[in-house]
Amino acid sequence: MTFVQLIECRTSRLDEMNRLMDDWVQQTKGTRTATHAVVGTDRSDASHVVEVVEFPSYEDAMRNSNLPETDRIFRGLVALCDEMPTFTDLDVVRDERLSEHVVRRFFEALCAPGELPPLNDLLDEDIHSRDPMNPQDTIGLDNVRAEFRMWRGAFDFAFTVEDAFTQGDRACARWTWRATHRGDFLGIPSTGRQVTMTGMTVFRFGADGKIAELWWQHDQLGLMQQLGALDELEQ
């Protein structure tokens, strides 16, 4: 079970505390068991500092606490605080990866029946989309929507998200795309063929939680082969 430790203290020496934490990260490289740490200051009281540290389990947290470097850092932390820090130990009983939820909503929206949804609740107005099929990046929400409409006009399709991973402001999804060729695609008239394509998409999220950048990688050659575009070359 994931374990989180909440550390609270009061200090007017935040810069020194940050340098102390940098030292701890450097000294425990390869041995520390923490997987994620966030430090914040109270907007109504800047001297109130809160650190949230995540561990794979309580046992991993205890191993981290027993490192000699951790003890030295703790003594340094106490010296920088106006009062003794407090610790709250939390077993995580619910963990929602919101960026993963946005990724899955994005793929669902691309396949939505009827008109393409506006997507302005998911995509940044200045979004950059990078697709190896295009010689240049597609920039701006209107242009990205036009590109998605091109695909929707050529195919009836659905995405299956096979895997999705998130880290910080990035996410990556591995997907399978299954489609029926219904309209013109890169000069290829409708064939009615059932086609499948696999690929991956990397996402970067902006500060507002919307998707700011997309990087697409997919089996374009395999798709063109399934559409018969390579038949003459293979003869």
Automatic annotation (TrEMBL):
List where the protein spans the membrane: none
Q: Which Pfam families match?
A: SnoaL (PF07366)
InterPro entries referenced in this protein's UniProt entry, alphabetically: Cyclase_SnoaL-like, NTF2-like_dom_sf
Q: Where is the signal peptide?
A: none
Report what the protein is called. Ester cyclase
**Could you tell me which species this protein originates from?**
Streptomyces musisoli
